[in-house]
Write a structure and sequence with these properties.
This protein has 167 residues and is mainly alpha-helical. It contains five helices and six strands. Helices cover 41% and strands 8% of the residues.
Length: 167
């Protein structure tokens, strides 16, 4: 019985040491002030180093915030403020727009599925603003509810944006 308890203690102390090392790794980076462009450049550089088949979405947490532990070596620290990213479009957002990426991901998935099944974009014909037509996505049950923000369909493979397009 003593052998078992020492093995269990060893197992837990190993895990505790690993957690301390992980915490120390993060703590070794200072808090820094960065711009959204700095984040964009760091993500681009990080992406270039990823193995084939691995995408930059590994940087995005469930709440769409960016996991800066992975970017800290590139940035030289951990940003003092949070940034967020859409998993579908890779658009970046600051704290005041943190709700946009989750809504964007839901709408982009709905648009993609609609296009796949109908072979057309879910927007009104001749709409110069190229607004996503929430009515058709709701009617065909691609969306459960319309988001509070208007999204627009870009010319880039049906990707959406929250910024009003210029005509």
């Amino acid at each position: 019985m003593k052998l078992f308890s020492s093995n269990v203690k060893s197992l837990f102390s190993h895990k505790r040491n690993r957690n301390k090392q992980s915490a120390n790794k993060t703590k070794s980076f200072p808090l820094i002030e960065v711009s959204i462009d700095d984040i964009r450049k760091a993500i681009r550089q990080f992406s270039e180093q990823l193995p084939k088949g691995v995408f930059r979405t590994i940087l995005v947490k469930d709440d769409n915030s960016i996991d800066f532990e992975q970017l800290a070596p590139i940035l030289g620290g951990i940003p003092a403020k949070k940034f967020y990213m859409s998993k579908e479009t890779y658009d970046l957002f600051e704290e005041d727009e943190k709700d946009i990426p989750q809504a964007m991901d839901i709408v982009q998935k709905a648009v993609d599925l609609y296009v796949k099944e109908h072979n057309e974009l879910p927007m009104l014909p001749f709409d110069p603003q190229r607004r996503v037509n929430y009515y058709v996505l709701l009617q065909d049950k691609y969306l459960k509810e319309a988001p509070d923000i208007q999204f627009y369909i870009t010319e880039l493979d049906g990707l959406i944006t929250h910024r009003k397009l210029k005509n």
